[in-house]
Amino acid sequence: MHIPVLQKEVIEYLDPKPNENFIDCTIGEGGHTLAILEKNGPEGKVLGIEWDPELYKNLKKEIPRWNLGKRVVLVNDSYTNLKEIVEREKFQPVSGILFDLGFSSWHLEESGRGFSFEKNEPLDMRYNLENPLTAEKIVNNWPEREIEKILREYGEERFARRIAREIVQERKIKPIKITFQLVETIKKATPIWYHHRKIHPATRTFQALRIAVNDELKNLEIALPQAVEILEKDGKLAVISFHSLEDRIVKNFFRENLKVITKKPIRPFLEEIELNPRSRSAKLRVGQK
Questions:
Q1: Distance between alpha carbon 231 and the CA centroid of its chain, in Å?
Q2: Distance of alpha carbon 190 from alpha carbon 180, whole angstroms
Q3: Does residue 278 or residue 53 have the better pLDDT?
Q4: In angstroms, what is the C-alpha Rg of the chain?
Q5: Most buried of the four, 41, 53, 56, 274, by CB within 10 Å?
Q6: Are residues 52 and 193 in the same domain?
Q7: Are residues 124 and 182 in the same domain?
Q8: Are residues 103 and 117 in the same domain?
Q9: Using H for helix, E for strand and C for coil, what is the string for the chain?
Q10: How many structural domains is the chain composed of?
Q11: What percent of the chain has pLDDT over 70?
Q12: Helix axes 144-155, 160-173, angle to 10 degrees
């Protein structure tokens, strides 16, 4: 199993004790959950929520190999329905809740849904295939000013206007259906020096499209108040974010609703970044009810 981002720090701050219950709102491939279950036995449970039906099915097959009996409660749903899920599963009391807002390695490497600009795949970017909106629909159907707006707001892309204009020009000639088409369009729209920086010139555009397709920021704003409501007194809420927009939402929410435990966000050490370069932008914040 791949090691999840900031695993050691998550366990240190959530500090699971024997028989306590936890919720992993973004269980993904199960790494954080397994680390919690090593600490909260013999009776403690983890409620794991996974929005992606395919990832959920993969994990459902994997869990019996963990030999943990009924200590994992796995649900295929969105964390925007957190309160409803907890009531339905009668999952109380809850000592800690975790959100890892990064998409999983599986999404990048195996899903075939166009999350990576390094793979030539259909421009989909949905976590849940029941969602009618795809990245392809945005780039081919949305007005130029709307595309520019999401690139600027969700991607913090300095060349948002130029990229949006180029997308609209390109789609007049031929619909933009695959990732490499979009990457070439971004390169055409941006100066040469922009192609030789540490981060790939398509990074911010892909981020913006993914956030827009999955409504990630709004979903986070819907879920955080539910998490606080569910937690026991003194329970902890831990959130790992990967870009400044998410981090800002988390920081402001914690300041107004929780006792802040991490005055500054916890960042991965160099060793972790070397092992997992995707962890470089991760920030962990922890608050207590």
A1: 21
A2: 15
A3: 53
A4: 20
A5: 56
A6: no
A7: yes
A8: no
A9: CCCCCCHHHHHHHHCCCCCCCEEECCCCCCHHHHHHHCCCCCCCCEEEEECCHHHHHHHHHHHHHHCCCCCEEEEECCHHHHHHHHHHHCCCCCCEEEEECCCCHHHHHCCCCCCCCCCCCECCCCCCCCCCCCHHHHHHHCCHHHHHHHHHHHHCCCCHHHHHHHHHHHHHHCCCCEHHHHHHHHHHHCCHHHHHCCCCCCHHHHHHHHHHHHCHHHHHHHHHHHHHHHCCCCCEEEEEECCHHHHHHHHHHHHHHCEECCCCCECCCHHHHHHCHHHHHCEEEEEEC
A10: 2
A11: 99
A12: 140
**Long-range contacts of residues 51-56, Cβ cutoff 8 Å, at least 24 apart:** 51/76, 51/77, 51/78, 51/79, 51/127, 51/128, 52/107, 52/111, 52/127, 52/128, 53/128, 53/129, 54/111, 54/129, 55/28, 55/29, 55/104, 55/106, 55/107
Token pair, residue 280, equals: 């470089």
List of long-range contacts for 129-137, beta carbons under 8 Å, 24+ apart: 129/53, 129/54, 131/213, 131/214, 133/212, 133/213, 134/213, 135/182, 135/209, 135/210, 135/213, 136/175, 136/176, 136/177
Question: pLDDT tens digit string along 212-271?
Answer: 999 999 999 999 999 999 999 999 999 999 999 999 999 999 999 999 999 999 999 988
The CATH number assigned to the domain holding 55 equals 3.40.50.150
pTM equals: 0.94
